[in-house]
């Protein structure tokens, strides 16, 4: 088989899953990761649809179930803390059947554990240059080393350095949806027990939740912004932007914001999507958010990463390592799936962050009446139907 040495940039969900499948098919993957270790914590994410089939084939479904968040329910609250409406966790999250919710860091650890003894990991390093000479890709690393690999795959997220090096600047491909998101750990001062609380005001949504796997809690902020100019690595600047956006808000907002200074996992970024005409160029390919980020508003980023990793490795194996055929087969098999899930993002965020006082008033009124309505679970299932349809918009081959 040709082209067996593969450098994967990024040890997130997409990168560790791809390393597993490539190794299983007889390739020799190496993973380079900017962070000093696998990232812990993170937001709770869902595995649904075709992605469930992927993790089942990996043999980790039972472990994922043991690590699930087990969030029991969610409530919408007013500024004074009064709960307007509540529903079960699976109903609120649009989950059905075997769909599972897990913390991103827990899933990443499970996938890493599958591969750490069989795959070379280069932590605390990154790619600074790529030279595709037709027979291989010469890679220069930030720490000064230089190596040549048969293929390179960028699994390094929305702000992919691999994409920038091989395809051009981020501005060509990243499209903001007009919103930003911030997530970080906070003390569980409300003593939530596997429960989620959401507060909504014009242009801003905030929530706090606890899970079975965390003695603390998480705070999440979604807010309308348009374009913001800031350094993606300047935490202090990002925290000021967040504080300014929520200045004067009620509920638990001030106390939650106080917690961000000490949070070990502070995250802040735009809600954006990546749109590209092609996901490969020569011996370099992209998967996951680097190729087709659907934004967290889609609820499908993790599933896209898992499915993409499975298909890319399988198509390369089916093509005997012929990268042109393998990359082409991967894109042909997954582009429709990616586009269907990307389509969810713009519509979902408009329901998550309401722009006007009248919209907020109307939604709060409807939610306060929901507990009196029969069949509210069926109503929510109907609302979530597009999500479930997109999650199943691919038929996986047996490679």
From TrEMBL:
Residues 4-340 form the FAD-binding domain. GO terms for molecular function: FAD binding. It holds the Pfam family FAD_binding_3. InterPro entries: FAD-bd (IPR002938), FAD/NAD-bd_sf (IPR036188), FAD_aromatic-hydroxylase (IPR051704). This is FAD-dependent oxidoreductase.
């Amino acid at each position: 088989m040709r082209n067996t040495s593969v450098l994967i940039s990024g040890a997130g969900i997409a990168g560790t899953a791809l390393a597993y499948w490539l190794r299983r098919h007889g390739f020799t993957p190496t993973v380079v990761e900017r962070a000093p270790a696998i990232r812990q914590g993170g937001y709770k994410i869902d595995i649904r649809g075709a992605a469930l089939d992927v993790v089942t084939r990996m043999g980790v479904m039972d472990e994922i179930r043991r690590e699930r968040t087990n969030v029991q329910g969610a409530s919408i609250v007013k500024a004074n803390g009064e709960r307007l409406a509540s529903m079960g966790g699976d109903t609120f999250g649009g989950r059905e059947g075997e769909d599972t919710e897990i913390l991103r860091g827990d899933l990443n650890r499970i996938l890493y554990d599958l591969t750490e003894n069989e795959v070379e990991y280069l932590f605390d390093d990154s790619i600074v240059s790529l030279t595709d000479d037709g027979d291989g890709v010469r890679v220069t690393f930030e720490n000064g080393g230089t190596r040549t690999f048969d293929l390179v795959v960028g699994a390094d997220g929305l702000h992919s350095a691999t994409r920038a090096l091989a395809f051009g600047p981020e501005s060509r491909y990243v499209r903001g949806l007009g919103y930003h998101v911030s997530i970080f750990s906070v003390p569980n001062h409300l003593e939530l027990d596997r429960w989620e609380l959401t507060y909504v005001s014009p242009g801003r949504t905030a929530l706090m939740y606890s899970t079975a796997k965390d003695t603390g809690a998480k705070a999440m902020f979604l807010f309308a912004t348009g374009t913001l100019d800031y350094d993606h690595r300047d935490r202090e600047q990002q925290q000021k932007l967040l504080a300014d956006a929520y200045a004067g808000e009620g509920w638990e907002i001030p106390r939650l914001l106080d917690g961000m200074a000490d949070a070990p996992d502070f995250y802040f970024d735009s809600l954006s999507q990546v749109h590209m005409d092609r996901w490969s160029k020569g011996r370099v390919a992209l998967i996951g958010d680097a190729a087709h980020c659907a934004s967290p508003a889609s609820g499908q980023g993790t599933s896209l990463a898992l499915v993409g990793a499975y298909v890319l490795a399988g198509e390369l194996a089916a093509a005997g390592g012929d990268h042109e055929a393998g990359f082409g087969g991967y894109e042909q098999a997954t582009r429709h799936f990616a586009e269907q899930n990307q389509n969810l993002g713009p519509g979902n965020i408009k329901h998550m962050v309401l722009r006007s006082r009248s919209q907020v008033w109307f939604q709060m009124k409807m939610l306060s009446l929901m507990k009196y309505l029969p069949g509210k679970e069926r109503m929510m299932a109907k609302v979530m139907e597009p999500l479930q349809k997109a999650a199943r918009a691919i038929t996986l081959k047996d490679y």
